[in-house]
UniProtKB/TrEMBL annotation:
CDD domains: ASKHA_NBD_PanK-II_Pank4. This is 4'-phosphopantetheine phosphatase. It comes from the Eukaryota. Residues 448-756 form the Damage-control phosphatase ARMT1-like metal-binding domain. Phosphatase which shows a preference for 4'-phosphopantetheine and its oxidatively damaged forms (sulfonate or S-sulfonate), providing strong indirect evidence that the phosphatase activity pre-empts damage in the coenzyme A (CoA) pathway. Hydrolyzing excess 4'-phosphopantetheine could constitute a directed overflow mechanism to prevent its oxidation to the S-sulfonate, sulfonate, or other forms. Hydrolyzing 4'-phosphopantetheine sulfonate or S-sulfonate would forestall their conversion to inactive forms of CoA and acyl carrier protein. NCBIfam families: panK_eukar. Its cofactor is Ni(2+); Mn(2+). It holds the Pfam family Fumble. Homodimer. Interacts with PKM. GO terms for molecular function: ATP binding; hydrolase activity; metal ion binding; pantothenate kinase activity. GO terms for biological process: coenzyme A biosynthetic process. One of its GO terms (cellular component) is cytosol. Keywords: ATP-binding, Coenzyme A biosynthesis, Hydrolase, Manganese, Metal-binding, Nickel, Nitration, Nucleotide-binding.
Length: 771
């Protein structure tokens, strides 16, 4: 049973991890490995203790003496997958480290098996048995690679990228179809295997070639003094293949237009070497020519198989690539050229972990990995082309660069696409890709950094009786600012850089140091104040004629959205003594609004009620109680059922599912209309599966998706700047949709062309397109 932490008996937090690598080993439950000749990948599953708020409708924010009341918490367990990659030559030292830090006794561990794939599964079987007491269960490598690839494609949104050398940006992350099959997986190891994957359990090896990474390494070692694979790649980066390769223009004097061959195309790899003076050839030129020769052949073979089988999605992985820019560039060029642009070479951010993930899934019954969705933990993962800084393990004479991926289980099960999206395959939640927009990137990275001290202060304030809260808040500050600084230099490190990803990273960093809900007391205080105003608020609405009532309900919905602690300008207003709902109304843009579809909305209401509305709510307090609930009540009174969709976990001052259930019960004591609707099953709250101030409709709970279908939802209402402006402004639906937000950021408002001092308003109603 969870233990309660709270009130004045609470003095310390959950123990925090001291190291960045191999975190939470003491709670590790199961291991798997992929051991290659050069790199080893360890996968393990652990349970992570975290503080979870106990919501209580009777709990007050102040005690009888006017002092802050420490919130009630319980310690819950979350599931996490860890994947760590390091050089195989350090495997014994790393196993020693694992052995020393595992809490489980040797007697317990020896009863378990470890799934191992890769060439080292045989070589290191005895060592694993000796060090960890685990029985080695060997798994077939290609099967593991495919299972790992499927897992990543389903769970990490920005897993897939296209590489464009010297592009701006060089990494582009395309939208991935919800249906990930069929695809081609080209694994470039020592040789090349080409796998056609048609379903989870239906795949086959359709071809390959013996000319692969081993060929490059072997010939490179014979032709140059390079001692290792990475040294050979580095050599190729400096070389000029044109000194050795014979080009089309060397034969024809320029382009060969009759055959459609550009002059710079390689006509013969190493074609000039026979006539070249020995002292004119540099090792770097040889390495680059060799790399191009092998990459071109692989690209041509892959494109032929893709076109033969009618496949558009071709994923490349394997030791030969390892996200190395020049290798990706040559393969991308080759497959694009030979397919005449019909096939695009695709790469995976975490392709190095495919085998380890697949091996882990083979024995993952304990964590039911296939029954849940998983999300990348930005606080514990290293980014693309960014191994974590060197970490010194015991008995190791040098610091080792280690790459790491952490994924957290989504407690709500498997997340799915919203069934009301029109063309889910083309759905992109984010409005702006900061990797492409340099001006916006600079603004938002600076903005998040400048606001950091406010969140540090709020985190400490949220746990007034915790002695180590300041130290943990400082750890949060250091972690998050290091991420921001890194993203300034490497904006593509974690996929598309967006406002949503920056917000999510902040939440991940807060949770890592045990601050699950920094705005809890603030939300409770505002909820209490708003509930006191609800009765008079509803009475004022009821005194209005029908048309004016609905106009006012729409305006109040927007005024409530001003109460947003995540927006700097709004937060400054909310700190002014006496700032309340009427003052928020005064700060709204005067009509006509920036986007003003109120008349279209009223015309639709006059035509009759919708069957059911799904409202994605935003903030606690005035927003949900005086904005959303009165608006929902008008829909209910008009004959429309209403589903209130709230976040699964806290983010800023957004209302959560657990909070909204309690708030709705309290509101029902004030409003007979709301109480009657709840009793009759016309009004209820559902968990959206979100944990962000933004909204990704590609990952909602299956229960909510099913409810939308069963109740024939024909109206979606999305509220809030994060959910409407930063995300979903251009999202298309199969039903009517109302997008409502107040732009509470001056820089963003100016980007939209609004220069007024008041907050611009978006009230955008889009009717279902009738075909």
């Amino acid at each position: 049973m969870p233990s309660t932490i709270g009130d004045k008996t609470y003095s310390k937090s959950i123990e925090l991890p001291e190291t960045e690598v191999f975190r939470n080993l003491k709670n590790a439950k199961r291991f798997a490995m992929d051991i290659g000749g050069s790199l080893t990948k360890i996968a393990y599953y652990s349970t992570v203790p975290y503080r979870k708020v106990l919501y209580n409708k009777d709990q007050k924010t102040l005690d009888s003496e006017g002092q802050d009341v420490n919130p009630k918490y319980e310690v819950s367990q979350g599931d996490r997958l860890h994947f760590v990659k390091f050089e195989t030559k350090y495997i014994e030292t790393c196993l020693d480290f694992l052995q020393e830090n595992l809490v489980a006794s040797a007697d317990v561990m020896k009863e378990k098996k470890i799934k191992v794939t890769g060439g080292g599964a045989y070589k290191y079987a005895d060592l694993l048995q000796e060090k960890l007491g685990l029985t080695v269960d060997k798994e077939e490598e290609m099967t593991c690679l495919i299972e790992g690839c499927n897992f990543l494609l389903k769970n990490i949104h920005d897993e897939v990228f296209i590489y464009q050398r010297h592009g701006n940006p060089e990494y582009r992350f395309p939208n991935v179809d919800p249906c990930i099959f069929p695809y081609l997986l080209v694994n470039i190891g020592s040789g090349v295997s080409i796998m056609k994957v048609e379903a989870e359990d239906r795949y086959e090896r359709i071809g390959g070639t013996a000319t692969g990474g081993g060929t490059f390494w072997g010939l490179g070692k014979l032709l140059t003094k390079a001692k290792g694979f990475d040294e050979l790649l580095a050599l190729a980066e400096r070389g000029d293949h044109r000194k050795i390769d014979m080009l089309v223009k060397d034969i024809y004097g320029g382009d060969c237009t009759s055959l459609g061959l550009p002059g710079d195309l390689i006509a013969s790899s190493f074609g000039k070497a026979a006539q070249a003076a020995p002292d004119s050839i540099q090792e770097a030129d040889i390495a680059r020519s060799l790399l191009f020769a092998i990459s071109n052949d692989i690209g041509q073979i892959a494109s032929l198989y893709a076109m033969m089988h009618g496949l558009k999605k071709v994923y490349f992985g394997g030791y030969f690539l390892r996200n190395h820019p020049l290798s990706m560039h040559t393969v991308s060029f080759a497959i694009n050229y030979w397919s005449r642009g019909q096939v695009q070479g695709l790469f995976l951010r975490h392709e190095g972990y495919l085998g380890a993930i697949g091996a882990f899934l083979k024995g993952a019954e304990e964590c039911d990995a296939d029954k849940y969705s998983w999300s990348e933990n930005y606080a514990g993962s290293s980014g693309l082309q960014s191994p974590l800084p060197g970490h010194r393990l015991p008995s190791l004479p040098v610091a080792v660069n280690v790459d790491q991926l952490e994924m957290d289980r989504i407690d709500q099960g498997v997340l799915v696409y919203c069934p009301l999206l029109d063309q889910p395959a083309s759905y992109v939640p984010d409005m702006v890709d900061l990797t492409e927009d340099a001006e916006a990137r600079k603004y938002w990275l600076d903005c998040f950094e400048e606001s950091l001290d406010k969140f540090v202060s709020q985190a400490i304030k949220s746990q007034p009786l915790s002695a180590d809260a300041p130290a943990r808040a400082q750890k949060f500050r250091e972690k998050y600012i290091s991420r921001l600084q890194y993203l300034k230099q490497h904006p593509c490190a974690f996929g598309n850089l967006t406002v949503r990803s920056l917000l999510d990273t902040r939440e991940h960093c807060l949770n890592e140091v045990d601050f699950p809900d920094p705005y809890l007391q603030q939300k409770q205080l505002e909820n209490e104040a708003a509930l006191l105003l609800l009765s008079d608020h509803l009475a004022e609405l009821d005194a209005l004629p029908w048309r004016q009532k609905h106009e006012t309900a729409a305006t109040n919905l927007l005024a409530g959205n001003v109460f947003d602690w995540g927006a700097k300008e709004a937060a400054a207003l909310m700190q002014i003594p006496g700032f309340g709902f009427q003052q928020a109304l005064a700060h709204l843009q005067k009509r006509p609004w920036f986007v003003d579809h109120v008349e279209d909305w009223l015309v639709r209401l006059e035509e009759g009620p919708h069957r059911c509305a799904a409202i994605f709510v935003d903030n606690s307090g005035m927003d949900v109680i005086l904005g959303v609930l009165p608006f929902a009540r008008e829909l209910l009174n008009h004959g429309t059922k209403v589903i209130l969709c709230a976040n699964s976990k806290p983010a800023l001052n957004d209302v959560t599912y657990s909070e909204l259930v309690l708030l709705l019960e309290q509101a029902a004591l004030i409003s007979k209309d709301l109480a009657c609707a709840m009793e009759e099953g016309r009004l209820w709250v559902m968990d959206s599966g979100q944990a962000s101030p933004c909204l990704d409709l590609g990952r909602i709970t299956r229960s909510l998706a099913d409810a939308m279908i069963v109740n024939q939802v024909d109206l979606v209402v999305i509220e809030g700047m994060g959910r409407v402006i930063h995300t979903n402004l251009h999202a298309k639906f199969k039903c009517d949709v109302l997008k409502v937000a107040v732009i509470k950021n001056r820089w963003l408002a100016r980007r939209f062309g609004e220069e007024e001092d008041t907050f611009p308003v978006v009230f955008q109603f889009e009717r279902k397109t009738v075909l």
